[in-house]
Amino acid sequence: MTTAESRTDTDELFIGGAWRTPSSGARITVNSASTEERIGSVPEGAQSDIDAAVAAARAAFDDPNGWGGFTPDQRADAMERLADEYDKRAGAIAAAVSSQNGMPIAVAEKLEAVFPPLLLRYYAGLARQRPFEETRPGLLGGSTLVTSTPIGVVGAIVPWNFPQALAAFKYAPGLAAGCTFVFKPSPETVLDSVIFAEAIAAAGIPDGVINIVPGGRDLGSYLVSHPGIDKVAFTGSTGAGRSIAEACGRLLRPVTLELGGKSAAVILDDADLDLAKIGEQLFSSTLLNNGQTCFLGTRILAPKSRYDEVVETFTGFAQYLQVGDALDPTTQIGPMASARQRERVESYIAKGRDSGAMLTTGGGRPEQLDKGWFVQPTIFAGVDNSSVIAQEEIFGPVLSIIAYDGDDEAVRIANDSEYGLGGSIWTSDHDHGVAVARRIETGSLGINAYLPDPTAPFGGIKSSGLGRELGPEGLEAYLVKKSIYL
Ligand code: NAD
Description:
With 486 residues, the chain is α/β, with parallel strands linked by helices. Helix content is 39%, strand content 20%. It has two domains: 3-259 and 462-485, Aldehyde Dehydrogenase, Chain A, domain 1 (3-Layer(aba) Sandwich); 264-447, Aldehyde Dehydrogenase, Chain A, domain 2 (3-Layer(aba) Sandwich), CATH 3.40.309.10. It contains 16 helices and 22 strands. Helix 2 runs antiparallel to helix 5 (115-129), helix 2 (72-88) packs antiparallel against helix 6 and helix 2 packs across helix 7 (191-202). The longest helix has 17 residues, at 72-88. Bound molecules: nicotinamide-adenine-dinucleotide. It holds the Pfam family Aldedh. Keywords: Oxidoreductase. The active site is at residue 258.
C-alpha cells in the first residue's frame, strides 16, 4: 500500500478492516474543482460490496471478544487513538477535500480536518462519563433497571460539501454508543475517504467497525433498505431525504435526516455593520464554503430604515472577496464542486434576474479564471421572499436581500420558508437578538456569528430534517432503551 498522501488512485475498498478487491471493475474518477484536471480514482462499490460491508459490520457488532464486548472506556480509548491518527493526516485530508469539492483550503484546515478529531474526543469523553444503565425507583413499588445499548449496524450516507465533518457527526457519537458503520461517501468526494480508512486501520479500530463503500444514489438506496441495517443516518438534499424517509417508514427503521436549508440572516435595526468588526463572522454565516453549506443565512433580512446601507455593505463585501483556486491559502471563494452544481447555481441566477430582483454584483463567471467551476459571489437586492431565489436552496455564493419593516415582519418573513435549519441575528443588543431568535422557527441560530458547537444539538425542522446530531442528544440517537422491571 502507498502512503496517505500519495494514494490518489486505489484499486481496493476498505471493508472488514482490510483492503479488498471490489466485486465490479467500475470506477469513480474525481476531477479537481479548481482545475478540472483528473486527480484520482477509486473503485465504485457494487451491491455485493455493501453486502460484504454490512456482514463485516454485523460480525464486529456481535463479537463478544472484540468491539461488541468493549466497555465504554475501551471504546473511548479506540476513539482517541483514531483522533490521533486523524490528526496526523489532517493536512492530507484537508487538501483532498479542497481539491475535490472546491472548499477553500483555509476552511478545510479550520473545519473539515478539525471537526472529526474534536468530535471523537468529545464523544469519547461522554462515553466515559455517561452511565449506560441506571436503576430508577418505581411509583408502584419496586424499581426499574433502564439500559442504554447500541442500536446496531448503521448505514451512513454523506454529501460532498463537508464529507469528513458530516461523517464524524455520525460515527463519533455512534462509536461512543457501540455501533458499527457502513459509510457511503458521495462520488464527488471519495479520495478523502481513502485517507480516513488508513487512519482507521492505523488506529487499530477492530475490523469491520467502520466500512467504506463509495457509490452513487442507487447504492445509497440499496444500503438504506438493506435487511442488515438497524439505523440510517443521512445528510443530503431534502429530495433524497424524502425518499429515504419513505423507505425507512416502510421498514419502521430509525432514521436521522439532516437536509437542506434556506435560513435567514436577520440584520436588526441596531446592528453594527462595521465589516472590520463583523466581516469574518458575516462571511462564515452567509457564504462559507462557496455557499455550499446547509446552514447558511442566504436570505438577508434588512430593515427598511437601513436598507440601502445593508445592500451597500453586502455588495462591497462580495466584491472584495478573493475568488480563486481552492488550494490557495488566500482564497475565500473557491469553485463549485462540479460542473453540474455550477449549472444549477447559474440557473438560479437566471431565475433571480427574471424575477425582477436587482443584481448588485456578480451574476457571472470570474473573467480571470478560465478553468474550474467558478461563479462570482452574487448579490440580489429588492428580493421578494416568495420568489424562487428566496424559497429554494441554491447552494452557491448567491445572497438575496429582502426588506422588512419592524421585528414582527422580520420574524414573519424568516419563518415563511419550507426550511428551518440555521440562521443568524445581527444586533448590538444581545437581549434583543435572543428575543428575536426565540421567535424564529429553526433548529439553530447564531447571534452575530454562526458556527455549530459540538456540545449542542444540531438539526432541522420542517423540510430541513428529522432528529438531531451533536451534543449528548447526538449520542442518544445511537442508543436503544430497555426497561427491566425489578
Ligand atoms: P444529495 O442528496 O444529492 O446526495 C447526498 C448523498 O446521498 C450522496 O452520497 C448521494 O449519493 C446519496 N443519495 C442521493 N439520493 C439518494 C437516495 N435516494 N437514497 C440514498 N442515497 C442517496 O445531496 P448533495 O447534493 O450531495 O448535498 C447537498 C445537499 O445536502 C444540500 O441540500 C444541503 O443542504 C444538504 N446538506 C445538509 C446538511 C445538514 O446538516 N442539514 C449538511 C450538509 C449538506
